[in-house]
Amino acid sequence: MVKYTINVTIDLRLLAMKLRERGKKFIRVHELAYELGVSPKTAGKVLVSLAKLGYVVRWSEGVYMLIEEKPVKYRVVNKDVLKTI
Predict the structure, then answer these.
(1) Backbone phi and psi for residue 20, each to the nearest 5 degrees, phi listed first
(2) What domains can you pick out in the chain, each with its CATH number?
(3) Which residues contact 70 (CB under 8 A, 6 or more apart)?
(4) What is the dihedral of CA 74, 77, 81, 85, to 10 degrees?
(5) For residues 10 and 46, is the Cβ–Cβ distance under 8 A?
(6) Closest Cα partner for 69 from 11, 29, 5, 13?
(7) Which positions ≥6 away from 20 have C-beta within 8 Å?
(8) What is the pTM of this model?
(9) Distances (CA, A) of 9 to 54, 60, 68, 75
(10) What is the pLDDT of residues 29-47, one digit of tens each?
(11) Non-local CB neighbours of 33 within 8 Å, separated by 6+ positions
């Protein structure tokens, strides 16, 4: 039996870094689909995953806004010491 599909792994951190380096503030689903050579549905899933990781936020239907840098979370361990999570 011949298999006509493949599975591809995308490093989301690297993709987010590359998108930030372009200097654009917004990314469209269709634009990302064209650049990655995937369907708009797959590109939408990639952007949803990036949103869950905090790299983008949904701006409107089919458009996501890139976040400058992922915020660092801290928790108070001691009054004088902050520990990075």
Answers:
(1) -65, -40
(2) 12-84 (1.10.10.10)
(3) 53, 54, 55
(4) -30
(5) yes
(6) 13
(7) 66, 68
(8) 0.74
(9) 19, 27, 24, 33
(10) 999 999 999 999 999 999 9
(11) 39, 40, 42, 43
CB 74 within 8 A of CB 67: no
Q: Report angle CA 57, 58, 60 to the nearest 5 degrees.
A: 150
54: which 2 tokens?
Answer: 């905090």
Burial 24-52 (b: 16+ CB within 10 A, else e): eeebbbeebbeeeebeeebbbebbeebee
Reading the block at residue 69, the tokens are: 């840098």
Helices (H), the chain: 12-21, 29-36, 40-53
C-alpha pair distances (Å), 6 with each of 3, 20, 38:
8, 28, 12
Residues 2-30 have pLDDT tens digits of 888 888 899 999 999 999 999 999 999 99
